[in-house]
Design a protein that fits this description.
By secondary structure, the protein is α/β, with parallel strands linked by helices. It has helices at residues 7-10, 104-108, 110-122, 146-151, 161-170, 185-190, 218-233, 262-280, 308-312, 341-355, 374-386, 440-448, 471-482, 500-508, 531-542; strands spanning 25-30, 41-44, 47-50, 56-59, 65-70, 77-81, 87-91, 98-102, 127-133, 139-141, 154-159, 174-180, 197-198, 206-207, 210-211, 238-242, 254-255, 286-292, 317-321, 362-363, 366-368, 391-394, 421-423. It is 28% helix and 18% strand. The longest helix has 19 residues, at 262-280. Residues 1-21 have low confidence and may be disordered.
């Protein structure tokens, strides 16, 4: 291959291998921000599919007509397809949930429970968060689990969960159950081997009366999952895990079954939540995690295993407890954050939205309906409505400021779904380079010449023509285009990624010297190629 022949296509390429033409329709289900949505159900007539980890689907037998899409935690959508295009990108928007917390003993009392449903009927509240296991370790629904029976966890006042679900859904309420997961004094005392232990006493680790099950212990994790599965099979829409964390305490004297340093804590919480999602999605339930509000502004796991990006990657809904009263002086520039409810929830939500942009998880904060006037409660609601977010209102006794909640029939939040994007697979071999594109022939040549390997691995059918080329990608293009042989490690400190072999080959051919002269200790593979660097690369490559 003559080097000069591929220079034409070089300047506008991101790696991609062309895809073969397909029958029916192929596509991707995404969030409004463009993040892929796995586990969405896509149907056209008798043909249906479930999106993969990249949000991808293929309906080989689909013909012109309606395509329906559904996913837990997201609003259903139906789109019309005329059969002319081969590709659909379909955004889904999150369900707009306005919920109230219903304590277990409230749900167990017929009169109190009906008063909660009255709030649903009379206001914009459209969901309930019902405790099935609380901070004291009491289980309020009539459970069949052996651990509940043996530990004596069953509360005195109980309810039939299936009946509760039926009554709530009859009032058009979305049903969430809350499980206090690892904080459990009853099971910790009954089964000390499932608990975090104090190395000094051998007894369950006690933090001001709180005793936690060990998030690294398989049996402790299984108990939380068993409760979740039991609830999901009773017909609930969503399972919310609270206290899904390590104790916020000095753990130097605590003993765990598994690794409990910062990395271990983060992995333990994320892996538990991911396991719950794998278990509950096939049963039709969304998964949610409550986290401390300040975690949205903390890059690490906060000493408790709750690293925001890791949690968001493992659940359908992330619910920070953005109670202004819980923020110390100085947060967001306020001497008394509790006096600024709208501002606190706004700033904390923006922090979370920025960090969760590439996540499929929905942000749905908890707000404070305690120690506040109805006006202060409403300020939080208005702030979150203004951001297009749902919310859940917390009062531990389920005693709410009724006048704070907008009356039924008033739409206070919610966003419409962005339009569907359609495309057809043309001669370029890439969905995003149509035949009328000025570079269609150049891109097709690059694919046919196997100089590209995809901007969207492992699918390799998108070209990303408008995205900048990185130095690492440029190394791959040059190595393939020039058919360069392998080279020895040039000693760059940052060349151990996917483009490591290409960078080594480029250095061996004398085409690169590094990105930080005169030291030249790095290659900077993630940095975009400048036009000046391009000139140097091409001059050296073409002699």
């Amino acid at each position: 291959m003559r080097p000069v022949a591929w220079v034409t296509g070089l300047l506008m390429l991101l790696i991609a291998l062309p895809a073969a033409a397909t029958e029916g329709v192929t596509g991707q289900v995404v969030t409004p921000a463009g993040a892929p949505l796995p586990d969405a159900i896509v149907s056209a007539g008798a043909d249906s599919a479930v999106t993969d980890a990249g949000g991808r689907f293929h309906l080989p037998g689909a013909g012109p007509g309606e395509i329906t899409l559904s996913r837990v935690a997201y609003a259903d959508r139906t789109v019309a397809w005329d059969g002319e295009s081969d590709w659909l990108t379909v955004p889904l928007v999150a369900r707009t949930i306005h919920a109230i917390h219903v304590a277990g003993w409230v749900a167990a009392d017929a009169g109190d429970w009906d008063s909660m449903l009255d709030l649903v009927r009379d206001t914009t509240i459209n969901a309930v968060v019902v405790d099935i296991k609380n901070e004291n370790g009491h289980v309020f629904h009539r459970s069949d689990l052996e651990t509940v029976e043996r530990a004596g966890s069953q509360a005195v006042d109980t309810f039939d969960l299936e009946a509760i679900v039926s009554e709530a859904q009859a009032a058009d309420a979305y049903v969430i159950v809350r499980i206090v997961t690892f904080q459990d004094p009853i099971v910790a005392e009954a089964f000390p081997d499932m608990s975090i232990r104090d190395r000094r006493t051998g007894r369950p680790f006690n933090q001001d009366g709180q005793r936690f099950l060990d998030p690294t212990d398989p049996r402790a994790r299984e108990f939380g999952l068993d409760l979740a599965e039991e609830a999901c099979r009773a017909g609930v829409d969503e399972v919310q895990f609270d206290y899904v964390r390590f104790p916020a305490a000095d753990l130097s004297q605590a003993v765990f079954d598994g690794r409990a340093d910062a990395t271990g804590r983060r992995q333990a919480i994320a892996s538990f939540l991911a396991e719950a999602r794998r278990l509950l999605h096939p049963l039709g339930c969304a998964t949610a995690a409550d986290i401390f509000g300040w975690i949205t502004n903390t890059p690490g796991e906060g000493g408790i295993g709750q690293q925001l990006e890791a949690v968001a990657g493992a659940v359908d809904v992330v619910s920070p407890m953005m109670y202004p009263s819980h923020y110390e002086s100085g947060w967001y520039g306020f001497a008394v954050p509790n006096d600024h409810p709208a501002e606190v929830v706004t700033y904390a939500s923006r922090d979370a939205l920025r960090r969760m942009r590439d996540s499929a998880a929905v942000l749905r904060p908890w707000i404070q309906d305690f120690w506040y006037t109805p006006g202060q409660v409403r300020a939080q609601i208005d702030a979150l409505d203004g951001l297009g977010l749902g919310w859940m209102s917390w009062n531990i006794l389920s005693q709410f400021s009724r006048s704070a909640y907008p009356p039924a029939g008033i739409l206070t939040a919610g966003t419409s779904a962005p339009p569907v994007t359609e495309a057809s697979l043309g001669r370029s071999g890439f969905w995003d380079v149509p035949d009328e594109d000025v570079f269609a022939d150049d891109v097709a040549w690059m694919g046919d010449s196997a100089i590209t390997a995809g901007c969207n691995p492992p699918y390799s059918d998108f070209y990303c023509p408008d995205r900048a080329v990185t130095r690492g990608e440029m190394a791959a293009f040059l190595v393939r285009g020039l058919a360069l042989g392998a080279g020895e490690d040039p000693g760059f400190s940052d060349d151990d990624g996917v483009f490591g072999a290409d960078i080594a080959a480029l250095a061996a051919a004398g085409i690169t010297r590094g990105c930080d002269p005169p030291v030249n200790s790095r290659f900077c593979p993630e940095r975009a190629v400048t036009r000046g660097e391009m000139a140097a690369f091409l001059r050296r490559a073409l002699g």
